[in-house]
Amino acid sequence: MTSHGTAQPTRQERRRAQTRQRLLDAAQTLFARQRVDDTTISQITNEADVGFGSFYNHFASKDDIVEAAVREYLRQQVREVMGLVEELVDPAETVAIAYHHFASKAAADGEITQLLLSLDASYKIMIEELGPHARNDIERGLARGRFAISDPEVALVASAGALIFTMRAMSEDKVGPDAAVEVARLVLQIFGVTENDAAEIVKRSLRSGPG
Amino acid sequence: MTSHGTAQPTRQERRRAQTRQRLLDAAQTLFARQRVDDTTISQITNEADVGFGSFYNHFASKDDIVEAAVREYLRQQVREVMGLVEELVDPAETVAIAYHHFASKAAADGEITQLLLSLDASYKIMIEELGPHARNDIERGLARGRFAISDPEVALVASAGALIFTMRAMSEDKVGPDAAVEVARLVLQIFGVTENDAAEIVKRSLRSGPG
């Protein structure tokens, strides 16, 4: 347990957090170069240079560290998106850049994307990690009259499904290289932006964005 | 192997097909009343009244019969949708009724829906079983100027993802009872129909439809 509130973490707590992070980093390194099914817990503890038994002080199972690695990956992606959109005022542009960024990663980070897409828990993890940000963008877009959405929660869930299925199709080469741009447009359309406006917003935001 | 072409199936082939169907029916009956994880192959062969060993003449594993049961369920749903839309000329109405029908089933057929949503193969199965029909509707809608879609394959994949994530949210009571109507509207928006037109088409097609 990590202490909350104003208390500083103790030396023991810091060390514990460091070991957990070492295990996570080791898992991500291994998953990037070999299949998860072929990865053993002892390979992870060797790579992290910690004792085999201490794995279970931090994770209940291999599935548990896989889920934690996917969450950490998504949080890192969210931080990257936040950096890309921090100066934007238009929530429609924010949505375009965010969904484009995640879809683009499907091609770039193949292994972790496969992991994300194959996990039974991927639905839950996507909604938990990305949902709060997407809800915030939807609310801002509605307040500014940029979006027309009758049920924000269904629109959020549908946009997440559109994103993840497109990522899967991209990772399997079932769709062309422009699919990341396409899905950004389609999500804006889900949020009630017309097809013409969505095309224009995506073109503008991907041209001006640093990514 | 089933014979193709004009040859009639032999008596042996007919008997073989009947046994396979009995096993599938038994699996669906069992999955409707208990968890798949708690269902054994011997329960399935008992329910079907066939010998345990003959299971493996038809299916490689429990996963294999689960996948076949889900495919058969989807094909049955496709037949129901075909019945609902056969007299419609407007592909936009066909799309509204089809996606609404599938989403509505998430609440009605809880167990098989959970199965569909939890299967790692659900992406592949959905695209294989429903994709050809959706592609046909998209092509007709484009030819008639009802849809505005720049990449039909991405639109198809995104609409399937929107549907399946909404079904999952419905089966977990994360969205309201109108989610099936909502997702039908959102899929039309993915296909380039404006938000106002999509709302009107869905209202009209669900009012006039027999379902």
Summarize the structure.
The structure is a homodimer of 211-residue chains. With 211 residues, chain A is mainly alpha-helical.
How does this model look, in words?
- The structure is a homodimer of 211-residue chains.
- With 211 residues, chain A is mainly alpha-helical.
- Chain A folds into 2 domains: 11-59, Orthogonal Bundle (Arc Repressor Mutant, subunit A), CATH 1.10.10.60; 70-208, Tetracycline Repressor, domain 2 (Orthogonal Bundle), CATH 1.10.357.10.
- Chain A has 9 helices and no strands.
- Chain A has helices spanning 11-33, 41-48, 62-85, 91-108, 110-118, 122-143, 152-171, 179-190, 195-208.
- In chain A, helix 4 packs antiparallel against helix 8, helix 4 (91-108) crosses helix 9 (195-208) and helix 6 (122-143) crosses helix 7 (152-171).
- At the A-B interface, helix 7 and helix 8 of A face helix 7 and helix 8 of B.
List keywords for this structure.
globular, mainly alpha, 211 residues, Arc Repressor Mutant, subunit A, homodimer, 9 helices, Tetracycline Repressor, domain 2, 2 domains
